[in-house]
């Protein structure tokens, strides 16, 4: 981790995927993605309805890594640049971080989320020098549990009514994590 806390923008390749920093031009695709009912439920943005302005602010916040607290990447098809999803390290601090993700409906079921999570996690350990990355998902979201398992995040326990999701209800969550020292 740089002493300044600054995390420099990166592009990460993973076979037919390219993980790259967000751009203003992604805003229309992000607007559509954030309106997807499953993403609205499990990756709630809070606040205002998702319109063009909200989507543009969303990509600009994620493109600005200057605080050192997050590293957020668009997951795209390397061949044609199509937006497939989002993967982010949040709360980067003192060797720890949390990871979050979504994929657009058309990209689901192709291991896009698993491969993006694995690639970003490998980078977090190898290049950012992190030691522990946590992943939380609602117990009611089994697809996300599968992503966590397949990406090598060990289940560590259940957090009771720990997070308020898109429908305004609190849900139990599974906490998973990977350590840099895991095999
Ligand atoms: C969860 C999500 C990211 C998975 O994305 P994806 O690109 O389809 O994931 P992958 O293809 O990498 O892997 C999905 C795995 O989940 C499994 N899966 C999909 N839907 C499932 C369901 N309803 N129940 C159980 N498993 C399910 C798939 O079979 C696959 O497992 P497999 O590799 O053993 O076949 C995507 O569905 C999504 O964005 N959902 C809405 C938002 C969300 O849940 N975000 C995560 C918040 S923690």
UniProtKB/TrEMBL annotation:
Tell me which Gene3D superfamilies the record gives. Answer: 3.40.630.30
Q: Which UniProt keywords apply?
A: Transferase
Single Gene Ontology MF annotation: protein-N-terminal-alanine acetyltransferase activity
Task: List residues traversing the bilayer.
Answer: none
Q: Which InterPro entries match?
A: Acyl_CoA_acyltransferase (IPR016181), GNAT_dom (IPR000182), Ribosomal_N-acetyltransferase (IPR051908)
GO CC annotation terms, alphabetical: cytoplasm
Domain N-acetyltransferase: where? 17-172
Q: What is this protein called?
A: Ribosomal-protein-alanine N-acetyltransferase
Species: Micromonospora noduli
